Amino acid sequence: MHSFLYRANALLTFSITILALMCAMASVSDNFNSPSPTSEVQVLNINWFQKKPDGDDEVSLTLNISANLQSLFTWNTKQVFVFLAAEYKTPKNALNQVSLWDGIIPSKEHAKFGIHITNKYRFIDQGSNLRGKDFNLTLHWHVMPKTGKMFADKIVMSGYRLPKAYR
Amino acid sequence: MQPVGVTLTTMMDWQGQKLAEHLMQLMLVCFAVVAFIAGYVLGSFQTMFLIYTAGVVLTSLVTVPNWPFFNRHPLKWLDPSEAEKHPKPQPANSGPKKKASKK
Questions:
Q1: Domain ranges of chain A
Q2: Which residue, A29, A78, A88, B2, shows the most beta carbons closer than 10 Å to its own?
Q3: Which residue in A62, A33, A30, A32 sits closest to A49, CA to CA?
Q4: Model ipTM value
Q5: In contact, A92 and A34? CB cutoff 8 Å
Q6: Where is B61: in which H helix or E strand?
Q7: Contact A104/A33 with Cβ under 8 angstroms?
């Protein structure tokens, strides 16, 4: 501690070490939060359902998505990425996941929402398996913290059965 | 008392250096604890960061410059004229040799 620059150096290194420790503690504190998010999705309408010229099935849906993800937010949460996937099984693939809608929730105030949309991304099967197919609607989310580990979870919701014929 | 400009350029004494280091560590840890608790309770990461940044700035203002506060126990060197008056310090030329031999 014998000179001005020596003291400035010691203060800088010590203060940054403590800051790193505080960030680590903030990340650990996220584990004390036990979230209880809820969500509900209704398929209101099949807008159209057809086979594309290349043979793959495509369907257009009107959806009503409502969710309350406010409990995911803690003081260390920067944003939450959320997406809705249709999940179903075909002879070729044990699990197909087709993203129908996604969004970025920037704050707790925006985490309780209800929206009425047609699917944002095209619902196309890898093949022609969608007629009469049951699928689950699953809401996935990734919580992005300000510091520390990112974590993800999902809610599997009751599914929907597509009609047996194109329309 | 010396003018401020001179005192700020002079170095700290030994006890001042010790005090400055202890004060720096104590202040930073205290500000970190307060900032973390305030941020956690208020649910605001930004509050934590701002309180801690303010603490770091304040700590650097207190402990980094050579404040006269840290120079209260200056080393008292023997005045050269004093040395001339007394013959005993004169064999001080051989003094270091004696000390070296003792060690």
A1: 1-29, 33-161
A2: A88
A3: A62
A4: 0.77
A5: no
A6: helix B45-63
A7: no
For residue range B23-65, list pLDDT tens digits in order: 999 999 999 999 999 999 999 999 999 999 999 999 999 998 8
> What size, in residues, is chain B?
103
Strand partners for A86: A98, A137
Inter-chain contact A18–B29, Cβ cutoff 8 Å?
A: yes
For chain A, helix, strand, coil in percent to 5 are: 20, 50, 30
**CATH 3.40.1000 fits domain A33-161:** no
Q: Which position has the token pair 């099984």?
A: A89
Tell me the three state secondary structure of residue A52: coil
Count of pairs with CB atoms under 8 A, one residue in A, one in B: 62
Whether this prediction's pTM lies above 0.90 is answered by no
What would the two tokens of residue A98 be? Answer: 């087709």
Pairing between β-strand A57-68 and β-strand A112-118 as defined by DSSP bridges: antiparallel
